[in-house]
């Protein structure tokens, strides 16, 4: 494969770069995922709430790629938290994807005020024990939520998928992950393609290497140890975003990008986000 794997805390290998499909309508997702699989992506990141598990599943089936070469992630939506509801929601996701198992199942948001993420995760542990999810984890968990979860359950999450890009570098969360053996997966790794890709320091590094700003940002993630799941529906960008394993940033580049941290979120604060 074009993309090297990282090894999760249960021994399962996950490609360090995958393809995200948030905000891509179902029929378009089928096309985009097909393009990504042709370009060499083997990891796909979807979620029940994205409404494109079916299109994603159709593209996977049509690709003819052996199941064991793929790494499929989906996520449990907020309104389905709780033990029994989680088991039902998981069945529905698998059905839509047309798969017999997923590689990674994530709790999409902690919803701390609802107080259900421990029960939800106990259902995840059952799905893991039954072999229907090869790895289980969470998304948007703050260290305080991870602490509570780890105290009350027995399988340490394999992954925490969080908003992470040069303007929000998440040092404290990454440090906690390292202590616990949790892989850090970056969502909106390109900062949603907004101002970040025009930041002069990033443009200058891109010129220096004969690469694009998006490739420089993705390369920064790879060298920082993050799993990344950039999204695009444009074939040339889908190609460009996976073509980040043929060059390296030097220490000076890394330092310049590390200096861009502003602790600034584009998305909601996990401590208060409670949309069902
Ligand atoms: P992203 O940072 O991947 O940015 C995507 C946008 O950047 C594209 O829509 C496009 O406008 C632009 N772009 C992409 N490639 C480019 C290129 N090569 N050159 C110039 N511009 C380019 O943002 P995202 O979609 O928010 O995040 C990626 C994935 O993370 C999502 O698709 C989803 O799978 C996941 N995600 C998860 C959560 C969560 O709560 N767990 C939240 C948001 C996103």
TrEMBL record:
The record marks 75 as: Lowers pKa of active site Tyr. Substrate binds at residue 108. Keywords: NADP, Oxidoreductase. The active site is at 50 (proton donor). The keyword Repeat does not apply. Residues 17-262 form the NADP-dependent oxidoreductase domain. SUPFAM superfamilies: NAD(P)-linked oxidoreductase. Pfam families: Aldo_ket_red (PF00248). Gene3D superfamilies: NADP-dependent oxidoreductase domain. One of its GO terms (molecular function) is oxidoreductase activity, acting on the CH-OH group of donors, NAD or NADP as acceptor. This is Oxidoreductase. It comes from the Bacteria. Belongs to the aldo/keto reductase family.
């Amino acid at each position: 494969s074009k993309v090297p794997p990282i090894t999760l805390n249960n021994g399962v290998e996950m490609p360090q770069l995958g393809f995200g499909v948030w905000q891509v309508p179902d029929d378009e997702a089928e096309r985009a995922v097909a393009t990504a699989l042709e370009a060499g992506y083997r990891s796909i990141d979807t979620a029940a709430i994205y409404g494109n598990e079916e299109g994603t599943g159709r593209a996977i089936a049509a690709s003819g790629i052996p199941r064991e070469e793929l790494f499929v992630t989906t996520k449990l939506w907020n309104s389905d938290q709780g033990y029994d509801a989680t088991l039902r929601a998981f069945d529905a996701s698998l059905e839509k994807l047309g798969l017999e198992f997923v590689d990674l199942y994530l709790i999409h948001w902690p919803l701390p005020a609802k107080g259900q993420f421990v029960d939800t995760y106990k259902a995840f542990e059952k799905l893991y024990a039954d072999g229907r999810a090869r790895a289980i984890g969470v998304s948007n968990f703050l260290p305080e939520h991870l602490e509570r979860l780890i105290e009350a359950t027995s399988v340490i999450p394999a992954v925490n998928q969080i908003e992470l890009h040069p303007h929000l570098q998440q040092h404290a969360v990454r440090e906690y992950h390292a202590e616990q053996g949790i892989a850090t997966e970056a969502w909106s790794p390109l900062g949603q393609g907004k101002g970040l890709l025009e930041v002069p320091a990033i443009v200058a590094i891109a010129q220096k290497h004969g690469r694009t700003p998006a490739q420089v940002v993705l390369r920064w993630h790879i060298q920082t140890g993050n799993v990344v799941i950039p999204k695009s529906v444009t074939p040339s960008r889908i190609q460009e975003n996976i073509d980040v394993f043929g060059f390296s940033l030097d220490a000076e580049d890394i330092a310049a990008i590390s200096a861009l941290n502003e602790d600034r979120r584009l998305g909601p604060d996990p401590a208060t986000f409670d949309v069902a």
